[in-house]
């Protein structure tokens, strides 16, 4: 028999042969049923990896089926492009590219039965969840969650401390799954946001207001955008129940250092002006360069603030919170301490300093896992130019 004779048989015959094997037929009987020799069927079986892996069927429509893989092999054999093959089976061309790269044989050929067997073998995961099985890992993750670490921060810490021991490491998704499944406890271990299930983020829309003599963000120095030069801040208010109380938030763009502004007398323009002037006086002059705010009327007296603090104030476009992305992110973190719909006037200046201290001592991936305090200290001890 010529060497490549088995591959000249129509694909439908091969497909029926492997279907019979899955049904429990012996190789010789399956070969006779489809009309080929026993040796021909044996070559097919060997080329497919010499195994029959039970196929329970796809667990999700996004997974490729055996028929999809046969169509991919036929398309490659006839010289079709990957995009055309993908369109014929209703998948993205990226999925087909990954499939060919991942499940081709060591010699580079794509055999659909070999590929399907390999996919089924990888799909089988009989092992127990890592966090369920590891008491030490579960205890550590629970402790860090109670200290308000995020799953990403916990995962990076484990990767650094246990670089050579994969049993005591966990990716963020593993921690999220364990948390939402209740493996870490319902009462003690919580996300900083308090969420118990996955939820899309929602952002508020700032109110359009007219403020005289505003300098818009488009006139802000270009050096602010690259975050290499410290001293550029973003500010906002988080509002309490019934809009009767507020807390001011300032975040330095380079170091992510946060300062909270106590507003015991309300949050109208005069109170915000006085509080900003008094509570930023301790910031070194070289760290008071620009301040970016939204177009809230609480900053109507921005010219007074500029004159008495040294900040150059710039205003974002209406309905554009992403132009203060650092501050928006920080406000989201702060809501774990100051939930929406609560009275913020009950928090003292000492309370605000304690919250800011905790946030400033938390490692941030954007800072290379430094804390904002460490990053700010580096800026203050290094060369700074106004």
UniProtKB/TrEMBL annotation:
<dbReference type="InterPro" id="IPR001598">
    <property type="entry name" value="Transposase_IS30_CS"/>
</dbReference>
<dbReference type="GO" id="GO:0006313">
    <property type="term" value="P:DNA transposition"/>
</dbReference>
<dbReference type="GO" id="GO:0005829">
    <property type="term" value="C:cytosol"/>
</dbReference>
<comment type="function">
    <text>Required for the transposition of the insertion element.</text>
</comment>
<feature type="domain" description="Integrase catalytic">
    <location>
        <begin position="226"/>
        <end position="380"/>
    </location>
</feature>
<dbReference type="GO" id="GO:0015074">
    <property type="term" value="P:DNA integration"/>
</dbReference>
<dbReference type="InterPro" id="IPR012337">
    <property type="entry name" value="RNaseH-like_sf"/>
</dbReference>
<dbReference type="InterPro" id="IPR025246">
    <property type="entry name" value="IS30-like_HTH"/>
</dbReference>
<comment type="similarity">
    <text>Belongs to the transposase IS30 family.</text>
</comment>
<dbReference type="InterPro" id="IPR036397">
    <property type="entry name" value="RNaseH_sf"/>
</dbReference>
<keyword id="KW-0238">DNA-binding</keyword>
<dbReference type="InterPro" id="IPR053392">
    <property type="entry name" value="Transposase_IS30-like"/>
</dbReference>
<dbReference type="GO" id="GO:0004803">
    <property type="term" value="F:transposase activity"/>
</dbReference>
<dbReference type="GO" id="GO:0003677">
    <property type="term" value="F:DNA binding"/>
</dbReference>
<protein>
    <submittedName>
        <fullName>IS30 family transposase</fullName>
    </submittedName>
</protein>
<dbReference type="InterPro" id="IPR001584">
    <property type="entry name" value="Integrase_cat-core"/>
</dbReference>
<keyword id="KW-0233">DNA recombination</keyword>
<dbReference type="Pfam" id="PF13936">
    <property type="entry name" value="HTH_38"/>
</dbReference>
<dbReference type="Pfam" id="PF00665">
    <property type="entry name" value="rve"/>
</dbReference>
<dbReference type="InterPro" id="IPR051917">
    <property type="entry name" value="Transposase-Integrase"/>
</dbReference>
<keyword id="KW-0815">Transposition</keyword>
């Amino acid at each position: 028999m010529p060497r490549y004779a088995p591959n000249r048989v129509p694909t439908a015959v091969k497909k029926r042969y492997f279907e019979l094997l899955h049904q429990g037929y012996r190789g010789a009987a399956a070969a006779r049923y489809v009309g080929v020799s026993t040796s021909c069927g044996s070559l097919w079986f060997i080329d497919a990896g010499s195994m029959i892996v039970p196929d329970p069927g796809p667990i999700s429509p996004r997974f490729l089926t055996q028929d999809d893989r046969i169509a991919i092999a036929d398309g490659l054999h006839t010289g079709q492009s990957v995009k055309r093959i993908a369109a014929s089976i209703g998948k993205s061309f990226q999925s087909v590219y990954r499939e060919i790269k991942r499940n081709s044989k060591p010699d580079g050929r794509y055999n659909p039965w070999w590929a399907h067997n390999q996919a089924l073998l990888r799909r089988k995961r009989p092992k127990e969840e890592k966090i369920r099985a590891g008491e030490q890992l579960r205890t550590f993750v629970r402790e860090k969650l109670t200290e308000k670490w995020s799953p990403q921060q916990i995962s990076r810490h484990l990767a650094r401390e246990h670089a050579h021991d994969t049993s005591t490491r966990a990716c963020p998704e593993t921690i999220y799954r364990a948390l939402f499944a209740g493996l870490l406890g319902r009462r003690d271990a919580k996300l900083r946001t308090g969420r118990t299930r996955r939820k899309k983020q929602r952002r508020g829309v700032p109110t359009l207001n007219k403020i005289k003599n505003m300098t818009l963000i488009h006139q802000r120095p270009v050096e602010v955008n690259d975050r290499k030069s410290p001293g550029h801040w973003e500010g906002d208010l988080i509002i309490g129940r019934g809009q009767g109380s507020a807390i001011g938030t300032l975040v330095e763009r380079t170091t992510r250092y946060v300062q909270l502004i106590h507003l015991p007398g309300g949050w109208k323009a005069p109170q915000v002006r006085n509080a900003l002037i008094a509570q930023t006086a301790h910031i070194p002059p070289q760290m008071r360069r620009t301040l970016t705010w939204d177009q809230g009327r609480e900053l109507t007296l921005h010219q007074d603030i500029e004159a008495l603090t040294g900040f150059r104030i710039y205003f974002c476009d209406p309905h554009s919170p992403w132009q203060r992305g650092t501050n928006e992110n920080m406000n989201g973190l702060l809501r774990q301490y100051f939930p929406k719909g609560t009275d913020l006037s009950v928090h003292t200046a000492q309370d605000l300093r304690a919250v800011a201290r905790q946030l400033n001592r938390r490692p941030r991936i954007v800072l290379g896992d430094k804390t904002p305090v460490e990053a700010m200290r580096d800026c203050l001890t290094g060369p700074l130019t106004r």
